[in-house]
Amino acid sequence: MEQRRAIAYEEVEPVVEWRQVGDDRDVVEISLPGFRKEQVRVQVDNHGVLRATGERPAAARGGRWVRFKKDLRLPENCDADGVRARFEDHKLIITLPLVVPDTRKEVQEVARVGAPAAEEKETKEQPPPSTASGTRTEAENERRLLVNMAAAAAVLVGIVVAVWRTLSS
Each residue of 58-82: pLDDT tens digit? Predict the structure, then answer.
């Protein structure tokens, strides 16, 4: 019978630099000396956590490997769908787009207070701001919540029926 050797890992803690670039994005740089692009993976989960992982053979052979795992909590105003990563010069560079609050709506509200009726009507007929930037309106968030609740209720009903059938037979 062939014996397989267990891989021995050396855990490393990479250096992380997080900086804000303007009001619309943050950049995270993770220094990964000795790693190549193919050896690194970046994921964003549904709970607002970015996870960067990687493993590679150690420089000195002998069955040892080097690996890392870094979890970072995304800012509340981060557009998780727009997160982008690239690998260059032994650094993993992750761009986190930030949703900037739309202050135009507040300005319109202030202007509307003292505006004549004709100007107010014209403001009301303008289409709502585009959501192409990835931000969702409150109505879209409520609709999404209702759909999720309906799906959860359907799954729960299915489980109850399955248990009831099992117990009744």
Answer: 877 677 899 999 999 999 999 999 9
